[in-house]
Amino acid sequence: MHHGRRGGAMKEAWNTLLARLDARTVRERALLLGALAALLIFVTDSLFIAPAQRSWRSDSARLTEARTQLATLDAQQAMLQAELELDPDAAMKARIAALQREASATGVRLQEASARFISATEMTRVLRALVSQTGGLSLHGLRSLPAQPVLERPAAADTEAAPADTGPGIWQRGVELDLRGEYAALLAYLGAIEALPWTLGWELLSIAADADGQARFTLRLYTLSLDEEWIGV
């Protein structure tokens, strides 16, 4: 993708459009800017947001499936362990050993799936760095969003032999960015995020224009975590 050539053309088109807007009445400007914002959101969604959301849903499903399966295996293992203590049996021992092997393999799958998602604290650092590396864009605000449970922490099995810690749930953590700059710079920024080796959920909330011709963008990005960690901003 030729981001530089495309970005230069967009910048020129953007400046031409702003010059034409200056010649309009206040009411005409408001109407045209509203229509332009809607169009830019649509284009941005088609180019970046929608493809990213497909990857997000796929990787989220793998992580949730692995975590759910591991919780089920842990519960089954705890129940069999309790029965084994009451009535030792070779077949039951073999079943427990098989469950332990399956749980170990599922644990590996869970870690591999979670590695597709950047940690919440690292996400903040990376997003700030990408803004600094993107010409024509500046960060005017970044706030942490409350953690949202995607998969609640599994409840312990109703047995005395069940482990006290049944493992983590899955949490969605996010940040909201307030950006200023050119639309071409926003596309370059989204392209840089798209090139990251992690899966991120995206949501472009709004696009508006300042009186000086600078565009304002409100963007939300999400990651998943096995910990309800706080994002330091």
Automatic annotation (TrEMBL):
**What's in the keyword line of the UniProt record?**
Membrane, Transmembrane, Transmembrane helix
Q: Where are the transmembrane segments?
A: 30-50
Spell out the protein name for this chain: MSHA biogenesis protein MshJ
